[in-house]
Amino acid sequence: MLLAGKKVVVVGGSSGIGLATAELAKSEGAEVIIASRNAEKLNAAAAKLGVKAIQADVSSDDSVANLFRQCGTVDHVVITAAQLKTGPFKTVSMDDVRSTMDGKFWGAWRCARAAEIRTGGSLTLVSGFLSVRPRPNSAIVGAANGAIESLTRALALELAPVRVNCVSPGIIDTPIRAAMPEAARREMLAKTAAALPVGRVGQGEDIARQILAFMTNGFATGSIVYLDGGALVT
Ligand SMILES: NC(=O)c1ccc[n+]([C@@H]2O[C@H](COP(=O)([O-])OP(=O)(O)OC[C@H]3O[C@@H](n4cnc5c(N)ncnc54)[C@H](OP(=O)(O)O)[C@@H]3O)[C@@H](O)[C@H]2O)c1
Questions:
Q1: Which helix (H) or strand (E) holds 225?
Q2: Radius of gyration of the chain (CA)
Q3: Which domain holds residue 105?
Q4: What would the pLDDT profile of 48-71 be if each residue is shown by its tens digit?
Q5: Does any domain span residue 101?
Q6: Is residue 229 part of a domain?
Q7: Which residue, by CA, sits nearest to atom 1 of ligand 1?
Q8: What's the total number of domains in the chain?
Q9: Which of 17, 42, 66, 124 to mutate for ligand 1's pocket (most ligand atoms within 8 Å of CB)?
Q10: How far is the CA of 119 from the centre of ligand 1 (A)?
Q11: Rounded to an integer, what is the distance from CA 111 to the centroid of its chain?
Q12: pLDDT tens digits, 197-223
């Protein structure tokens, strides 16, 4: 078991990529703590996996400080939390773009500052393909992802010997698109799958496996891995 005796915190662990990461870490023998805002969803996920839950909102300084106070010193921290509000650059509201940055970028920043990570441990951030493959109406998400990738490189130096890495997912089939009409969501996923060399979209576990590699490979720091089923070469 690759994580026996290790304590792993997954912020955003009640859903999607975070949930898959928590499940994989648990199956590798780690003591796992998951954190997110919605207590009902969080507790249900924690009960299903047999892990601990701590309610937290990464957009609040106090909430993040409280989360990591309760966690104590840990081995690995993974931050997948994000709720993205985007729209056409000229008309998207400043409240929406601020809240996107506040959750995704400043959320990662707050967690990275508050976490007490043991020597030999790691911090993994999650960016996303829009940093390098922008799409109309998503400028703020691309900007947040790019900022996370820069932060990763900076923290790999400043937090050493703690290792800091980032995975940038392509299209992954998770509840992040729950607000989309189901037929449109399915059509988008099918079109994306057909255009990719691997012939499918990603699953949470595909990204979780890379995060596990970052946790367990002592030579990985300052790395940004683009894991997108080949989207970058199409
Ligand atoms: N899925 C994709 O196609 C894709 C592609 C590129 C990048 N990404 C990135 O991958 C990461 C994970 O995405 P996902 O697809 O796994 O999303 P998801 O299924 O929607 O999960 C997001 C998780 O973050 C939590 N969360 C959201 N805002 C939070 C906050 N302010 N404080 C604490 N927890 C918060 C959510 O729970 P609560 O709502 O209960 O707080 C949930 O547990 C995100 O950074 C996303 O941008 C995803």
A1: strand 224-227
A2: 17
A3: 7-223
A4: 999 999 999 999 999 999 999 999
A5: yes
A6: no
A7: 172
A8: 1
A9: 17
A10: 27
A11: 12
A12: 999 999 999 999 999 999 999 999 999
Distance from the alpha carbon of residue 15 to the mean position of ligand 1, in angstroms: 7
CA atoms within 13 A on the CB side of 56: 34
CA of 83 to the centre of ligand 1 (A): 6
Q: Could you give the angle at the alpha carbon of 152 between the alpha carbons of 146 and 157, nearest 5°? A: 140
- Distance (Å) from CA 103 to ligand 1 centroid: 10
Residue 234 in any domain: the answer is no
Which of 52, 165, 64, 166 lies closest to 114 in space, CA to CA?
64
The pLDDT tens digits for 151-174 are 999 999 999 999 999 999 999 999
Determine if ligand 1 sits within 6 Å of the CB of residue 15.
yes
pTM for this one?
0.98
Going by C-alpha positions, the residue among 149, 103, 123 that lies closest to residue 211 is 123
Angle, helix 39-49 to helix 16-27, in steps of 10 degrees: 30
CATH number at residue 194: 3.40.50.720
Token reading at 189:
């996923």
Q: What residue owns the CA closest to ligand 1's atom 20?
A: 176
Q: Does 2 fall in a domain?
A: no
Q: Closest residue (by CA) to atom 2 of ligand 1?
A: 172
CA distance 20 to 38: 18
